[in-house]
Design goal:
Blueprint (H helix, E strand, L loop, with lengths): L4 H20 L6 E2 L7 E3 L10 E7 L6 E8 L3 H11 L7 H7 E6 L2 E9 L6 E10 L2 E10 H17 L1 E2 L2
Length: 168
């Protein structure tokens, strides 16, 4: 083999093998979250990663299950508030109504908006959701279930929010 072949072989090795080695390295998680006491962190479902789901949680018994979801998504605050209101069969709000319906909250050092709504159907369902807009996208933290069961988990949900650390 001639001396001119070695640089070409080295270049070929670097082109093929270095990206393969880097592909095996785990990507840093964009967010870390502590699982609240009594909650179960569920295994992510097929397709969750493509939907930017970071975590799923569940707490309670069969008839009073509360579910929580953390994901990075899109859409305006108004659009998401009205989507959640629609899930509880509540009327949509205009921009001013949305401003009145949410309250400010900090999550992982970032400003967010917290919504707490209860449907009128029996048994009443409740959604507590937080929207945090960051440079890498909008984060959603959502807890839902029977209103009385959600009430028992509000403190744990707030503790989960306090544990959030976003990747730098």
């Amino acid at each position: 083999m001639s001396n001119t072949m070695y640089p070409l072989l080295l270049l070929l090795f670097l082109i093929v093998c270095v990206p393969l080695a880097q592909a095996d390295e785990p990507k840093p998680k964009p967010i870390t979250i502590a699982t609240p006491n009594g909650w179960t962190e569920l295994k992510l479902k097929d397709g969750d990663e493509s939907l930017n789901v970071a975590a799923r949680f569940e707490v309670g018994d069969k008839d009073n299950t509360v579910r929580a979801l953390v994901l990075r998504g899109s859409g305006s605050l108004k659009d998401n508030v009205n989507r959640w209101r629609g899930q509880l069969k509540l009327e949509p709000l205009d921009a001013e109504g949305v401003k009145k319906a949410v309250r400010p909250v900090k999550v992982g050092g970032s400003a967010g908006h917290k919504l707490d709504i209860t449907g009128t159907d029996e048994p009443a369902q409740r959604i507590v959701a937080v929207v945090v807009e960051r440079d890498e996208g909008t984060w959603f933290f959502r807890m839902s279930g029977p209103a009385d069961a959600v009430e028992k988990q509000v403190k744990a949900f707030d503790e989960m929010l306090a544990s959030v650390r976003f990747a730098k």
